[in-house]
Amino acid sequence: MSMQKEDIIYKTYLEILKEELLCAMGCTEPIAIAYGASIARDTLDGDVKAVKVFVSNNIIKNVKSVTVPNTGGLKGIKAAVASGIVVGKSEKILEVIADVKKEEIGAIERFIREVPIEVKPIDLGNIFDIIVEVLSDKSKATVRIAKYHTNVVYIKKDDDILLDKGEAFADCQEVKIESSDHDRSLLTIADIYEFAQSVDIEDVRELLDKEIQANEAIALEGLKNDHGANIGSTILSYYGGDVRARAIAKAAAASDARMSGCDLAVVINSGSGNQGITVSVPLIEYAKELKVQKDKLYRALVLSNLIAIHEKSDIGTLSAYCGAVSAGCAAGCGIAYLHGADLDTIAHTLVNSLAIASGIICDGAKASCAAKIAISVEAGIMGYHLYLNGQQFYGGEGIVAKGVEKTIRNVGLLGREGMRETDKEIVKIMLQE
Fold this sequence. Notes:
Layout: H1 8-20, E1 23-25, H2 28-43, E2 50-55, H3 57-63, H4 77-87, H5 102-114, E3 117-121, E4 129-135, E5 140-146, E6 152-157, E7 160-164, H6 189-198, H7 201-224, H8 231-238, H9 243-259, E8 265-267, H10 273-290, H11 294-315, H12 323-338, H13 343-357, H14 369-388, H15 404-418, H16 420-431
Parallel strand pairs: 2-3
Antiparallel strand pairs: 1-8, 2-4, 4-5, 5-6, 6-7
């Protein structure tokens, strides 16, 4: 029996997709800093004369080496906060610095030279934490974003608290945040498959058309021009041009462009543009090769997006576990769906691919993310092909458990708890000059 629109799972899954599949221009961590900075500037009276930025270790990790779009190639936290203050439009949220004129880029550079910007690490109990303080000659404003990229939890102007979703951040306790998240605990592979089969395409068409258009466009840009380490074009040069190579190359190329500061927007997944690219671009390429109807691509994208979100729900927004792995394994499931795979095949595809690629570390946003995407999509496709060949990895072998849900939980524990100390060591290494 197909899932009905009035079912709680149907409604929840649809809202999760609407909540997660957002447009973002640039790597989402520096963009979140720019977003917070633009709100702080809007709150302040007078011109900004000094800035203090307090960020958690994972924000440092994911901003340090990535190019901030529309800044003339600038990298890092100071570039992110300056761009938000100088040219940011807070109402555009994760596209906060999308509309920058060429003549404004120089103003960002001047701001960094002329205005003191102090950056300090903090540990207030949140893996994702950004606090921006701006001062003028007559005013002070403070903005905090915590837990995820658009979650503004605190705004203060002088002595007036304008927004407070949690506890005061001076007490070093984990902030209690009112989240708009819908219940991720309802996500299961079986129900995701049923939802993908049953969903009214009109409920998701606008979301997915935007994902297809935006993420395909940046993939083509990544292959056409010189970006990052050119992982995408390298794959096509050395590994042939069949659909498998093209799917992997285009996903990597999109990340090549994005990590190099390309100003094209992407549709994100689990708070990440790279993950949004990975769950969608390979499917788009396979759909062309297989000449499937558009509705089937939509359903495959629903499946891939929700599986990636399900995998990341236990891991968290940021960790030492590379999010491209979750997305690449989900893409393998979406590719299997395009070939007509049933639920059992999709579940085994996911388990196989997680057994192959889990353990790739996240050491921040940068050019090598594209290579990790390539490896992860390859793992997703291999997981599917293994099962087609009558092969699988069994429960009790390493982190693989009996059943796809138990395996997902094991990976969640690995990423969230097991790699916590790894994450700290990665940040220490990255901060060594």
